[in-house]
Structures are given as C-alpha cells and as structure tokens.
Amino acid sequence: MERKTFDTAPCSIARSLDVLGDWWNPLIIRECLYGVHRFDEFQKWLDIGRNILTRRLKQLVDEGLLEKRPYQDNPPRFEYHLTDKGYDAAGVLLALMAYGEKWHFENGNEPIRIFDRTSGARVMPALVDARSMRAIDARQLYAGPGPAFPADKSVRRSRFVEYFARQGDGKRPAKTTE
Amino acid sequence: MERKTFDTAPCSIARSLDVLGDWWNPLIIRECLYGVHRFDEFQKWLDIGRNILTRRLKQLVDEGLLEKRPYQDNPPRFEYHLTDKGYDAAGVLLALMAYGEKWHFENGNEPIRIFDRTSGARVMPALVDARSMRAIDARQLYAGPGPAFPADKSVRRSRFVEYFARQGDGKRPAKTTE
After folding, report:
1. CA distances in angstroms from A7 to A72, A155, B31, listed in the order given
2. Distance separating alpha carbons of residues B93 and B21, to the nearest angstrom
3. What pTM was computed for the model?
4. Interchain proximity A16–B127, CB inside 8 Å
5. Beta-carbon pairs below 8 A across chains A and B
6. Which of A28, A67, A80, B111 is close enough to A10 for a disulfide, judged by CB 3.0 to 4.6 Å?
C-alpha cells in the first residue's frame, strides 16, 4: 500500500491531496460539473466499480465537497451535488485542464472546451497573482514559513531555515512584504 | 488495485491525473520547487520508501517533468530538476495550495507563504479567465465538446449531447463564441 494520509500535514498542498489527490475523486467532481448526479450515471460515465464509487462518494460527502439530495422516496434514492467547497475544488480541476491541454493535446485541439453560461464566451483558465494580476511563473517564486508553520520539536524551524534557503540560487528575496 | 490509466482518455483532466493524480508525484514536484534535488533529501523530507521514491522519480523523468543532472562521477549520482513541463505542473500545485489554504487553514494562518523572488512581494494565486481577467466561478461554466472530442463509435457523440445538455438548468448558453 502506497496510501498515506496527510490530514495533519502543515502544507496546504498535502492537505488538499488527501481528498483530491488520486484519480477518482477529481473525476467524480468533474462529472458533477458536467451535470452527472446519480450513482448509476457516475458508474456509467466513469466505468468505475460500485464498491469504489460507494466509498468515494461517501468520502466526498464526509469531507463536505458533495451533498446528498433525495430524489425518490420508495426506495430512497439520492443525487450528489457539489457544495461551495466542491465548486472551489473545481478550480484545481481547471488548473489540471490547462496543464493537460498544453502538454497532452496539440494547441487548439482540446477534447473539451468551457464557456461562460451567461455570455457564451469561451473561458480560458489562467493562474495569476491576485494582487498584480500578472501570470505566475513558478521559477520566480520563493517559499517561506507562514504563521501556521510548525514550531514544535518534531519539525524544527532550524531545519527548515536550511530547507527554504536552498531554493534557486539560495538567496532570499531582499525584503519580503506581506 | 484501484489504479487505472487514463493515458488515452479524451479529457485533459484525466490525462494530467495520470501523472499528477496521486499523492507522491505532486509532493515530489513541491520538494523540487523548495530546492530539494537529491534522492536522500527527497526521502528525508517526504518520509517515503526508497523503492516508491525510485519508481516515482523514474516516472517523472520518463514523462518529462524532471530531468537528471549528474553531480558526482564516482559513484555516479544525479540531481533531479524541474523541466518546463514540471514548472507548468507547479501551476496545479498552486491551485491546490489556494484551495487548501481556504478550506484547511484559518484565513491568514497558512503554513507556507510564497513570494516573488525579485520583488519580495507576496504572491496570492488566483484562477482567472485569461481574456476577461475576471475570477472564474465554476458555477458559471458550461462544458462542450472541442475539436479533439472522440467521434468514433465507441464513444458516440449522440450520447454526449445528452451528457452535456444536463449541466445546470439544462440550457446551453444562447450562443457560444470561440
């Protein structure tokens, strides 16, 4: 088993991966975005085993990304719909889509395109810095500990000073501003 | 085994997940961004088994996200560095980070912060539409088949007309524009 949980990791990426970081959960969210909400339909479109699908839907409900809505009383049957948290997770899918289009499909030859529901205009997801609105180039980034960075003995800050100091040319930016 | 390959799926998300969609590969890319490049250091920071790490590094090299650079001749030893494709994958990690910060850490209490290397200004990743530069709200999106959408008998377009028609209120945008 390679599976491991990151539900207490001091890292936003690791925490998100705990729910989103394998194949099925993001694809179930994709199906919801495409309008698929019922068990048999998830199974049909994803070609996924019933036991795996049952487990994943339960996890996504437990984690607050999906909510169950009854659509039939006898026998009771439920649809699965995205919550606010689930729609936010769709942002990760759009980043995956942008990366996949660039590297796995020829330019302009995408299998799926997305549009704005109201205007009908094509939407092209891009990652920018919310303040400067400029495209983010990962080569230009520098990471450092934030307020929730662990200060306990098991993960000593002193080790991480060395860790973060390694980035790029090893020089910190002259002066970081919040 | 729940693992399944999506390397021919007509979906940018599924194709990307084939390499990025479990825990270790994105975390190895994270480590590279943080300046970790050598086998023993990946192992130390990720607390990952040597056999799993060996396999994952090989996959990331084979898929073109990492490149090997010799740093010692006798015995031969290599460092692993991000390629252009690997840096682009970092965009997915930034989307994961933004989602994780919102939903797994209290506002402003992030464990890691990122800065621009040159200016030192804090960087806050956000997903926008590259044309309008407005924030993307997944509720407002509509998906439809693109040029590379499969038209063969095994995945019939007619089925997908129904599939895409289910989104939201079932109405397509009045007129989509490319």
Report:
1. 35, 16, 18
2. 11
3. 0.85
4. no
5. 362
6. B111
The answer to whether B122 contacts A178, with C-beta atoms less than 8 Å apart, is yes
Q: Cβ separation of A168 and B24 shorter than 8 Å?
A: no
pLDDT at B155 over 70: no
A171 min Cα distance to partner chain B (Å) = 9
Quote the pLDDT of residue B161: 57
Q: Which CATH number fits domain B12-104: 1.10.1060.10, 1.10.8.60, 1.10.10.10, 3.60.140.10?
A: 1.10.10.10
Per-residue b/e over B137-148, b at no fewer than 16 CB within 10 Å? ebebbbbbbbeb
DSSP reduced 3-state for B80: strand
Structure-model confidence comparison of residues A163 and B129, the more confident one? B129
Nearest to B100 by CA among A32, A148, A28, A178: A148
Give me the interface pTM, i.e. the ipTM.
0.84
Give the total residue count for chain B: 178
CB contact under 8 A, A120 and B35: no
Architecture of domain A12-93: Orthogonal Bundle (1.10)
Mutate to test the interface with B, among A85, A99, A133, A177 (most CBs of B within 10 A): A99
- Straight-line distance from the first to the last Cα atom of chain A, in angstroms, rounded to the nearest whole number: 41
Tokens 């494709």 belong to residue: B85
- Given B52, B136, B175, which is nearest A94 (Cβ)? B136
Identify the DSSP state of B51: H
- Looking at beta carbons, which residues of chain B come within 8 Å of A138? 33, 82, 87-88, 90-91, 94
